[in-house]
Amino acid sequence: MNTLQGKCTLITGGASGIGRATAQLFAKEGAAVAIVDVNDAAGKDLAKDIQDSGSEAIYIHGDVTRAEDCQRAVELTVGQLGGLDILFNNAGVIRRKNILEISESEWDRVMEVNVKSIYLMSKFTLPVMVKAGGGAIINNGSGWGLRGGRNAVSYCASKGAVVNLTRAMAIDHGPDNIRVNCICPGDTDTPMLHGEAVQLGLNKESFLAEAAERPMGRYGKPMEVAQAVLFLASEAASYVTGTILVVDGGGLA
Question: Rounded to whole angstroms, how far apart are CA atoms 99 and 184?
Answer without folding.
Answer: 23
